[in-house]
């Protein structure tokens, strides 16, 4: 059974940093690209970032480019999102999503984690 | 970056049929946009229903189907059940960007 468990969310002040983790199990983590998608309270979904199975290629939405860094440790079956220079508008539930493929040439979402809440506030 | 549009809300009667649509500000939606559809129930994470226009995952109920209709991506629900009441989001890909629609709140009443 595929499981994606996000952690690392919490309350952080504007301008601060936070690192989210997504622990994966039930599949060969190193074979699949992974994604982060967020959802602000009461709002819709926003695509944030993605990484290929080997970690070589990444993608960032314009709203987070230069502030967020996606990475993965295939030996630990874990996906990360390092967030810095956080703003109030980054407040959201952050979901980890598995891809059906190893590359990012085409979207390939299948399984979603349950999400972790990040609140940026003073 | 394209703006992806969906109906804000729709209502369907139990057992009825409803079609949700997903349009792009840049023009007609094609299979090259690899349309996706996601379902999100209150308090839950989204789940993927349809990928690449019309393909279903193993967990997608047979009453859901995806297509292209009138220049838009479409999600049709045939034989609505009370448990289908949820928010539905589409996603389109273009020039490497992935953009979600604003979502459709579907009420089964």
What key phrases describe this protein's structure?
heterodimer, A: 122 residues, mainly beta, four-stranded antiparallel sheet, 0% helix, B: 109 residues, seven-stranded mixed sheet, 11 strands, globular
What features would you describe in this structure?
The complex is a heterodimer of chains A (122) and B (109). Chain A has no helices and eleven strands. In chain A, strands 2, 4, 5, 6, 9, 10 and 11 form a seven-stranded mixed β-sheet that branches. Chain A has a four-stranded antiparallel β-sheet with strand order 1-3-8-7, with no helix packed on it. In chain B, a hairpin with a 2-residue loop joins strand 9 and strand 10. Chain B is built from no helices and eleven strands. Chain B has 109 residues and is mainly beta.
What composes the largest sheet of chain B?
Answer: 7 strands, mixed
Helix fraction of chain A by DSSP (H/I, runs of at least 4): under 10%
Number of strands of chain A: 11
Fraction in beta strands of chain A: over 45%
Number of helices of chain B: 0
Q: Unreliable stretches of chain B, pLDDT < 50, 5 or more residues?
A: none
Portion in helices of chain B: under 10%
Q: Structural class of the helix and strand makeup of chain B?
A: mainly beta
Report Rg of chain B: 13 Å
Number of strands of chain B: 11
> Major sheet of chain A, described briefly?
7 strands, mixed
| Shape field of chain B | globular
- Helices and strands of chain A: which structural class? mainly beta
Gap between N and C termini of chain A: 40 Å
Distance linking N and C termini of chain B: 36 Å
Indicate the mean pLDDT of chain B: 96
> Tally the helices of chain A: what do you get?
0
Low-confidence stretches of chain A: none
């Amino acid at each position: 059974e595929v499981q994606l468990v996000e952690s690392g969310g919490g309350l952080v002040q504007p301008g601060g940093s936070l690192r989210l983790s997504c622990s994966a199990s039930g599949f060969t983590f190193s074979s699949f690209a992974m994604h982060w998608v967020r959802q602000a309270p009461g709002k819709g979904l926003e695509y944030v970032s993605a990484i290929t199975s080997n970690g070589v290629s990444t993608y960032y939405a314009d709203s987070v480019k230069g502030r967020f860094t996606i990475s993965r440790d295939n030996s630990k079956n874990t996906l990360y999102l390092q967030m810095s220079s956080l703003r109030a508008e980054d407040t959201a539930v952050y979901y980890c999503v598995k891809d059906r493929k190893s590359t990012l040439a085409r979207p390939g979402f299948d399984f979603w984690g349950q999400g972790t809440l990040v609140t940026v506030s003073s | 970056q394209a703006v992806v549009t969906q109906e804000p809300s729709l209502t369907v009667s139990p057992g009825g049929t409803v079609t949700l649509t997903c349009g792009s500000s840049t023009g007609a939606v094609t299979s090259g946009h690899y349309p996706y559809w996601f379902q999100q129930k209150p308090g839950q994470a989204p789940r993927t229903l349809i990928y690449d226009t019309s393909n279903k995952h193993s967990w997608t109920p047979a009453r859901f189907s995806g297509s292209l209709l009138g220049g838009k991506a479409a999600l049709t629900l045939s034989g609505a059940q009370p448990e289908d009441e949820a928010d539905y989001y589409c996603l389109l890909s273009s020039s490497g960007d992935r953009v979600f629609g604003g979502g459709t709140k579907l009420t089964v009443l």
